Amino acid sequence: MTAVFHRSLAHDYPVAVSGEGIVIRDSQGRSYIDASGGAAVSCLGHSHPDVLAAMHAQLDSLAYAHTSFFTTEVAEELAEMLVADAPAGMSHVYFLSGGSEAIETALKLARQYFVEIGQPQRRHIIGRRQSYHGNTLGALAVGHNAGRRVQYAPLLIETHHVSPTYGYRHRAAGETPEAYGARLAAELAEEIERLGPDSVIAFIAETVGGATCGAITAPPGYFRAVREICDQHGILLILDEVMCGMGRTGTLHACEQEGVAPDLMTIAKGLGGGFAPIGAVLVADKVFQAFDRGSKLFQHGHTYLGHALACAAGLAVQKVIRRDNLLANVRAQGAHLTRRLAERFGNHHHVGDIRGRGLFQAIEIVADRGTKETFDPALKLHARIKAEAMARGLMVYPSGGTADGIRGDHVLIAPPFIVDAGDIDTIVERLAEAVDASLPPAG
Ligand code: PMP
Predict the structure, then answer these.
(1) Residue 377 pLDDT more than 90?
(2) Atom of ligand 1 nearest to the CA of 268
(3) What angle do CA 418, 420, 422 make, to 5 degrees?
(4) Pairwise CA distance, residues 91 & 434, whole Å
(5) What keywords are assigned to this protein (predicted)?
(6) Statement: residue 405 has pLDDT above 60
(7) Does the structural domain 51-323 have CATH classification 3.40.640.10?
(8) At how many degrees (to 10) do helices 308-323 and 49-61 cross?
(9) pTM tops 0.90
(10) Is 394's pLDDT higher than 50?
(11) Confidence label for 401 from pLDDT (cuts 50, 70 and 90)
(12) Phi, psi of 322 (to 5 degrees)
């Protein structure tokens, strides 16, 4: 019996009691390699001594001071570090407690920006299908994870969705990746024309898709074309890097690899590495200046924003990543993971696609490689893979096969940045066993 209202009421959860490095242990003495960093969160693994020491020191002085009264040294220092390493033109940081709050904040910042500059008629947000931006109602509305969204549809604000970048399924035969990217950008331009360019607030996208599609990268040139289209109409570009950001794809921000800078960027998971709940919106100076020249008041706020202990955790995590040059390890081990996945699954009858970047990669499971037909969603293959992996002491992040019927089951692999090649080999071996044990009998 449990008094905790768990996510799935049909499931018994092991009791996690301790964690060290890339391993979590449960109350039965079993250990699990955290090959998903939870949900792409634990970038330094568990119990990192430098982070714990920084958090203890912060607790000894001040855990929390409400931001309507004070700022704190630790929040200011973290913001300065984030701005120094941010994409061009970003000058300020708004702290939150997680990803969904960051998305809600970015949407409201974008809307108020246009009020501040005298364009209050702008009211539309355009997102992408098969995207995930969080579970609060605004984030759910701009995202399009069908399974998570469908039952709340009547409560959601009106939003508009264009095609995701999903080359494995949607790139036409004979179409180059560049032509595919241009076609998707043209679709966005058409949607903007249809709505009326001066009625659109923002386009929002995950730079690399995470929870809904599994490590989906954009075709070359797509984001540069999107940036141009937004600029042409004065529309803001919001990049959601809650999952793919803060080093996970091998550069601090995934958009660096796309050659674009957004107007607003949401970050969270890897910012605090799971040591404390923290998220943030990075804000372009152009947006900040509109507030500074205008009302000087962002009509928003949450009780725990800028929480000193959370900022201390984030600051310590970010210092360790820089000091230990961990992004180089993300790139090196990411390349090793790519090779090992190709060796183990490249000829697998039921793995249709292997994709991703850095330590953010996925395999897509299909019933038939030739036709790309998915398994029956009722099989809940992704859930079976998760259970089989847990039984083998491995945490991975499978999802898929639910209400939209157009994507297969996939498994996301997002281990901590401290993994070595031996860890990657073990992860891939255990995953292969878990996948094979989950597949329905042939015929
Ligand atoms: N955006 C993206 C891209 C995410 O992956 C997530 C969480 N999986 C969120 C937003 C929401 O973050 P949170 O769960 O911290 O609210």
Answers:
(1) no
(2) 15
(3) 145
(4) 45
(5) Aminotransferase, Pyridoxal phosphate, Transferase
(6) no
(7) yes
(8) 150
(9) yes
(10) yes
(11) low
(12) -75, -45
What mean pLDDT comes out for the span 66-74? Answer: 97
Helix or strand run (H / E) with residue 195 = helix 177-195
Beta carbon of 242 within 6 Å of any ligand 1 atom: yes
Q: Mean pLDDT, to the nearest integer, of 217-227?
A: 98
Q: Are 62 and 434 in contact (CB under 8 A)?
A: no
Q: Ligand 1 centre from 371 Cα, in Å? A: 32
Domain ranges of the chain: 16-47+325-438, 51-323
Beta carbon of 243 within 6 Å of any ligand 1 atom: yes
210 CB near ligand 1 (under 6 Å): yes
Dump pLDDT digits (tens) for 239-291.
999 999 999 999 999 999 999 999 999 999 999 999 999 999 999 999 999 99
Q: Which of 96, 101, 243 to mutate to test the pocket of ligand 1 (most atoms within 8 A of CB)?
A: 243
Q: What is the pLDDT at residue 403?
A: 42
- The CATH number of domain 16-47+325-438 is 3.30.1370.10: no
Instruction: Report yes or no: 233 and 176 within 8 Å, Cβ to Cβ.
Output: no
Q: Is any ligand 1 atom within 6 A of the Cβ of residue 216?
A: no
H or E segment at 19? strand 16-20
Q: Which residue has the tokens 């081990």?
A: 333
